[in-house]
Amino acid sequence: MAQIATSMANAFSNESEMKAMDANRYATKKTIAQGMLDIALLTANASQLKYILQVGDQHQFYKLMLIMISLSIILQLLVGILFVVIGSLNINRQKDQAAAVIINDIILVIIFVISVINVIISGFGIEYSSRPLTLLEQQANNLP
Fold this sequence. Notes:
Blueprint: H1 2-19, H2 23-55, H3 62-87, H4 94-123, H5 135-140
Transmembrane segments: 64-86, 98-126
Pfam family, one: Ninjurin
Subcellular location: Membrane
């Protein structure tokens, strides 16, 4: 019986600790984590852009890939700006809550679009190569 009472007391104690959690601090940490993931994707897209610019018209889908990668990078920069805006809001204030919800929804939609664009980019085959082309490969591709 004493164990049940102790368990119930611990449960109520944990509940009060959860209620005391600062929602604004949680939202800020979440925004920072999302920003870090955005930086990782931005780095990958920059690498893909470098590759597609090096290959040039030799790539079968050069123009499409150039447009898709550029659009992805632009949207990622927009999301980064929105992260800064939403990170500056204090969701403990009623006035900031409505703006935070709207901006969060906009970020969600843009991130979904970025994800679709990057799936398409992957589907059209960006091949990474850390080595320069050999003389035979350059001649086969009619490169100087």
